[in-house]
Amino acid sequence: MLNAAKLNAIAGIALALTCASAASGAAGTLETVKQRGVLQCGVSEGLSGFSDRNEQGDWSGFDVDFCRSVAGAIFDDRSKVAFVPLSASERFEALRAGRVDLLSRNSTWTLEREAGLGLAFAGITYHDGQGFMVMRDLMVSSALELDRAKVCVESGTTSQLNLADFFRANSMTYDERAFASAAEALAAFQAGQCNVLTRDQSALYAERLKLPQPGAAVILPDVVSKEPLGPVTRADDFAWFTLVKWVNFALVNAEELGVSSLNAAEARASQKPDIRRFAGLEGGFGRMLGLDDAWALHAVRATGNYAEIYERNLGVNSRLGIPRGLNQLWSMGGVLYAPPIR
């Protein structure tokens, strides 16, 4: 029989080997990012509220802020990100080919994209669903009134697949007008080549703002699919996938704990065990990720917690004005739920 001291020693060795293994895996993407000194993050070519660039070349948006959170966790510096704009058709191949370290581009998590493309979704950052936008003068109030409609859609997306499913399931017909980019689909809708535009509802809110008269268009209430959007990594680097996944969890946990960009410094003085673990004062969890123990606090200091990121870019007081709905904490009636840091 082994005594307690020997058992503890064996457990310590096992933990060391586990951490060494994780560090070895992290020597892939994480070490490359550290040596390069910048995170290469794939984003959309321009979607208000998610990833958009102004005339000065500065990026902003929900997905952009997630990239900055990851950079904050790694470097404690939100500026160490190079944003790579990618179309829907090229985004996954760009990730697989190593052109970007991380894809944060309003992408829907599906089985085919993980198992078929060899990718890994690091959780859900935004719970969305596909919808339809029409001009008010079409005089419809439900997607079930769109039989024989001309529908503009971006090709190579889940929106195109869901469109076919919805009309088939409801025994309706439609004339599909597919375009290579979201910008082309919107331009066609604006020019009257179709009388319906379909995309994720969040994207429709953004696209409506680009119309000459946004108030002339209405987003129908129907949600016809599940669109869990989240960051994506390659599936061949589990340590990097784990790091990105836990940055996602950290932003949600921060909101739940009341840790924000405004009080991040105060968190280090807290006596609450869960906040002390979050701030890296107890547990030594950063080492398991190949990061500084205060990685989670660095991520929040870079962009704020989940609520701050959401409200700044998408919330009711932003240009898009989207209520949080499902994207509220589980304790507040939503579905956001993150494992604890412990």
UniProtKB/TrEMBL annotation:
SMART domains per UniProt: PBPb
Superkingdom, natural source: Bacteria
Signal sequence, start to end: 1-22
Record key words, sorted: Signal, Transport
Residues in Solute-binding protein family 3/N-terminal domain copies: 38-265
Keyword Signal: yes
Presence of keyword Signal: yes
Matches recorded under SUPFAM superfamilies: Periplasmic binding protein-like II
InterPro entries for the chain: Bact_solute-bind_prot3, Solute-binding_3/MltF_N
Family, as annotated: Belongs to the bacterial solute-binding protein 3 family.
The protein, known as: Amino acid ABC transporter substrate-binding protein
Lineage of producing organism: Bacteria, Pseudomonadati, Pseudomonadota, Alphaproteobacteria, Hyphomicrobiales
